[in-house]
Amino acid sequence: QVEVVESGGGSVQAGGSLRLSCTVSGLTYGANNMGWFRQAPGREREGVSCVTWSGSITYYTDSVQGRFTISGAGGNTVYLQMNSLKPEDTAMYYCASVVNVQSNRCTPISSTYWGRGTQVTVSS
Fold this sequence. Notes:
By secondary structure, the chain is an all-beta fold. It is built from no helices and 11 strands. The model has no long low-confidence stretch (mean pLDDT 95).
């Protein structure tokens, strides 16, 4: 049974930092593409940052470019370092294992495994 578990969310003031962690267990094959998605109330889910299993391709949505960093490619734990947080970053953040990663997009597929999410709240 595959399990995806996120941690590290919380509440911070604008300009602060958080680091999210995601650990995947139960996959029968090796490293895979992983990523972070978020969904704010009333908005659609969006891909925030993803990385291929080899680390050769990373994706960041425009609004987090230069502020967020994904790491951990090739392992069963991936991290999202979030700096200079803004109120508009407030959302539930979900980790996803087995995603399609391209340089200009990151999308889930039918076999994507999801975590339950961790809340990030940024106050002004």
